[in-house]
From TrEMBL:
Residues 176-371 form the ABC transmembrane type-1 domain. Belongs to the binding-protein-dependent transport system permease family. Keywords: Membrane, Transmembrane, Transmembrane helix, Transport. It is found in: Cell membrane. InterPro entries: ABC_transp_perm/SBD, MetI-like, MetI-like_sf. The chain crosses the membrane at residues 7-27, 39-62, 74-95, 101-123, 135-156, 176-202, 214-238, 258-284, 304-332, 352-374. Signal peptide: none annotated. It is a multi-pass membrane protein. This is ABC transporter permease. It comes from Rhizobium lemnae. Gene3D superfamilies: MetI-like (1.10.3720.10). The keyword Cytoplasm does not apply. The lineage of its organism: Bacteria, Pseudomonadati, Pseudomonadota, Alphaproteobacteria, Hyphomicrobiales.
Amino acid sequence: MKQKIDKLGVVIALIAMPTLLFVPFVTFKANRIVQGQPVWVFSALPTWAAACLMLVVIAVLVSAILKAGVLVRMTAACLGLVTVLIAIGLAASFLTPEGNSFARVSTATGFWMLLFAFAMLLIDALARLRPRPLARILLLLAGLALLGLLARIGVWNELSLLKEFSSRADSFWREGWRHLALAVGSLVIAFAFGLPLGILCYRVERLRAAILNVLNVIQTIPSIALFGLLIAPLGWIAANLPGASELGIRGIGAAPAFIALVLYALLPIVANTVSGLVGVDAAVSNAAKGLGMTDGQILRRIELPLAMPAILTAIRIVLVQNIGMATIAALIGGGGFGVFVFQGIGQTATDLVLLGALPTVALALCAAVIMDALTELATRARKEIATA
């Protein structure tokens, strides 16, 4: 019987094999500021390690091309990702001269392309497997635990990225907490205002268009411009209201960034709240009225639970959006991971840029996976309520 060929597997193979053979895997620098030299896989790794990497890549690609079972494809993708992550650490150790604290080994295009190819295979396998919400969260935790273990045992200690981290460990965690405070704190405040505003728009239809149009206008203002617009009024408040400056309200810093994130978050929350409430079947509300429920009871017990998937979708959108936009807060002294991104750009230091960018991407990915799982659970609960 003729073996079926998987089209996505072919695409992944066309990405991975040429990348492995013809694209630099790492970049070697004699020190932090000189121009780097590209190094290919077979020069970056000991012979045995390069051979192992090649065998693993071939095995993973065969399973991808020949339409192996979903669990086989997922296992192969995980094996490929782990192997590439270990290989980059081995390459850094292999290329760094013993006792040399100035040399830098950075990830190059080949590493990222291999990582991208195997990530595509893993995402495809998970999409076909369709794990339940809690299973997806457990898989995420397992992946984070594995990355933590590799970091803990020192696999990547010689990478330039980890050297940048080790010299800035204290500021990294400080800016990380600031980043989370900006992203999550602004979401909480936006939700506290946005949910009642969405309910008001749902109940008073003549206000709906006006409120949503105002929020749409705010959404179209570029973030840098909005930061700039907030500097003058916040600066005036700090200068003229006693105690405002001590509370952190200033023309520059976290305050304008926080307010801007809140304003950007309002539209998704309000719009999705209205959409979710409008989508509640009128027959369900009428049946609740027939049972003697008040409007407030219907809202709390029937309409909001049924609208919860739409509301959680808004929270997901806002959380991922705020995690990304909080990076720009560093431009006006708001802190966060953007501090490292803009320092790296100013110093032409790619690894310093990655020190700020990678945690931001990881936070956004984790937030998306967790919120997607919660939304799916809410959708199932909605179906149970609707059929009860």
